[in-house]
Design brief:
This protein has 322 residues and is of the alpha/beta class. The protein has a domain at 255-322. 30% of the residues lie in helices and 25% in strands. The protein has ten helices and twelve strands. The protein has helices at residues 51-58, 85-91, 103-106, 113-124, 130-143, 160-172, 190-207, 218-224, 242-247, 252-259, and strands spanning 7-20, 23-36, 40-44, 66-75, 78-79, 96-99, 178-182, 211-215, 227-232, 235-241, 309-312, 315-317. The strands form two sheets. The chain has an eight-stranded mixed sheet, with helices on both faces. The radius of gyration is 20 Å and the shape is globular.
């Protein structure tokens, strides 16, 4: 369990399709990813690029009319795509947990915060009684900066930051092997966002957590992750360790993302605006999906789709420049 070099999650050729009245949307297209135990992976991209769909795919929680049409999700040597719904219910919460971006819509407004945690524990830990579960819940929320007296409160009595802490406590309640955090700070103000990020950083260290952090904010991932995967229009376009990617990004899309982030350490800085907008996933451009917005576009970029290729050690990029 403590082997930090062990690959706990391996996604191969994953494809997720949504059937809409406008046409077929391939939200995730032939995605390959690996995650080692104890590692934190940042999954970054613009809204609508498929990153949340990828996260929901791992838990097999894609809302209709979406469905997985191909590929494998190998978690701890077993393919989750082939699991039955009953088997997945035993994995969700126990082996893989999720921190959702809007806790107010995920927490039951008619249940007390403590009941959420106790129910989660008792659903998976049949040997424990309610008294044991309450004690675990109390110890857990105290570690997250919530008074155990607040366990009797309802979600509407919590602030946004406190609700997100409650969601984190649900994810930690059963010592899950993998936590998927889907835009966990999106609905929070800047001060509370910093507090939640510090909390996740502290928990990652103390609990030796394995995390997938889904976000559109490059500043957030720089604080927390070991490795970054950049997603564009359903495809992974670049994967690298955190510092090499920030120091020398290779894909033109990654370069554009980083140049659009304000840097207060520079006296004079002009932010660059990325031209164009993300493509319509129903009518995708031919060849490289980024070519209509790319400054380095070549003739073959519009004709052929580039492969995801390792150009440096542990640094992969999907671009004809390399």
């Amino acid at each position: 369990m403590n082997d930090t070099n062990k690959i706990i999650l391996k996604i191969k050729d994953l494809e997720v399709l949504y059937a809409t009245r406008m046409g077929l949307v391939k939200a995730v297209d032939k995605v390959d990813l690996e995650l080692k135990r104890g590692q934190t992976l940042g999954l970054v991209g613009e809204s609508g690029c498929g990153k949340s769909t990828l996260g929901f795919s791992i838990l097999r929680l894609i809302p209709p009319p979406g469905r997985i049409i191909g590929g494998e999700i190998i978690f701890d040597s077993a393919d989750l795509v082939k699991k039955t719904e009953k088997e997945m219910r035993n994995i969700r919460g126990k082996r893989i947990s999720m921190i959702f971006q809007d806790p107010m819509t995920c927490l039951n407004p008619l249940m007390r915060i403590g009941d959420h945690i106790v129910e989660t524990i008792l659903t998976h830990e049949k040997k424990l009684n309610k008294k044991d579960a309450i004690k675990i819940a109390e110890d857990l929320v105290v570690k997250l900066g919530i008074s155990k007296l607040r366990l009797d409160d309802y979600p509407h009595q919590f602030s946004g930051g406190m609700r997100q802490r409650a969601m984190i406590s649900l994810a930690l309640a059963l010592n899950s092997d993998l936590i998927i955090a889907d835009e966990p700070t999106t609905s929070l103000d800047v001060i509370v966002e910093a507090q939640i990020l510090d909390l996740l950083k502290e928990l990652r260290s103390s609990y030796k957590l394995t995390i997938i952090l889904i976000t559109h904010n490059m500043g957030v991932v720089s604080e927390l992750v070991d490795r970054i995967a950049i997603m564009y229009a359903g495809k992974i376009v670049e994967i690298a360790d955190c510092f090499p990617l920030f120091e020398k990004p290779l894909h033109p899309y990654t370069v554009g993302l980083l140049k659009s982030i304000p840097n207060i350490s520079l006296e004079k800085q002009e932010l660059e605006i990325m031209p164009g907008s993300p493509p319509d996933l129903i009518n995708l451009p031919t060849g490289c999906r980024f070519h209509p917005r790319c400054k380095n576009v070549m003739k073959k970029c519009s004709l052929y789709e580039p492969p995801l290729k390792e150009v440096k050690e542990n640094h992969l990029v999907r671009c004809w420049l390399y």
